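cron nightly-structures :: item 1 of 1
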Amino acid sequence: MFTMDSIIDEKIIEACEAEDACEEGLSWLRKKPRSFADLKRLKPEWYRWLAAHKNYPATLELLAKDADADVRWSVAGNAATPPATLELLAKDADAYVRRSVAGNAATPPATLELLAKDA
């Protein structure tokens, strides 16, 4: 389980590289150990990119709980987001987050049924 204090390790950096993360970001992450909190505080646009492009369930679960609705929106639209996380995001207070869950092809039918009742 990742927390905001967890270090972004080489495995995660390599996965970002496979998703065509920018060289500047990859270099910054490799320069010294960085936590998710560091990334969010110092490079918020890269933090949001991670939410939209990352394919590790534990990372997506962490990002789905972020206070920033844009981050949760990105996780909700990520096809790699686990079904349980999509179910959680389907109940989000932000309508755009819920809409992103509804548009995600990976969203389970039961979650879509819940969203169909959304005002």
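cron nightly-structures :: done
The mean pLDDT is 93.
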